[in-house]
Amino acid sequence: QVQLVESGGGLVQAGDSLRLSCAASGRTLRSFHMAWFRQAPGKEREFVAAISWSGRNTYYTGAVEGRFTISRDNAKNTVYLQMNSLKPEDAAVYYCAAAAVYRDYVPRLEGEYYYWGQGTQVSVSS
User: Fold this and answer.
1) Which of 6, 57, 93, 104 could disulfide-pair with 117, CB 3.0 to 4.6 Å?
2) Is 56 exposed, middle or buried (0-12, 13-18, 19+ CB in 10 A)?
3) Where residue 41 falls among pLDDT bands split at 50, 70, 90?
4) Of 70, 71, 66, which Cα lies nearest the Cα of 85?
5) What gap in Å lies between CA 101 and CA 122, rounded to an integer?
6) Are strands 120-125 and 10-13 parallel, antiparallel or unpaired?
7) Could you report how far apart the first and last alpha carbons of the chain are, in Å?
8) For 41-48, which contacts have Cβ atoms below 8 Å and span 24 or more sequence positions?
């Protein structure tokens, strides 16, 4: 079992930055690829970014490429999402998710992630 707890959300103005954290307990995150998803009101949950278990490979959805950075510190069992140049359309509940490592394949689909956090709200005013 892996328990994931997100933190770092809040209300910011457009153009500001936030760093989300996802702290894990129960098992070492070295066994998992990790991802961030988000869900805005009235919309389906969508993929934001993913990182391989080693941190060597990262993936982003086009809407955040160049503005968001996913990283991880396996020693601290924590994953981060640095969000810069925030836009009102980035407002959503952000979820951290973990998928067991299977070779080098890093999932990007919601259904491929087994463990989820409770989410943290990010609000962006224009």
Assistant:
1) 6
2) exposed
3) very high
4) 66
5) 29
6) parallel
7) 40
8) 43/92, 45/95, 45/110, 47/108, 47/109, 47/110, 48/81, 48/94
pLDDT over 70, % of the chain: 100
* pLDDT value at 104 more than 90: no
Q: E-strand spans in 1-126?
A: 3-7, 10-13, 18-25, 32-39, 46-51, 58-60, 68-73, 78-83, 92-100, 115-116, 120-125
Residue in this structure with the two tokens 């968001």, named with its chain if needed: 68
Q: What is the mean pLDDT of residues 22-36?
A: 95
Percent of the chain with pLDDT over 90: 95
The whole-number pLDDT of residue 103 equals 80
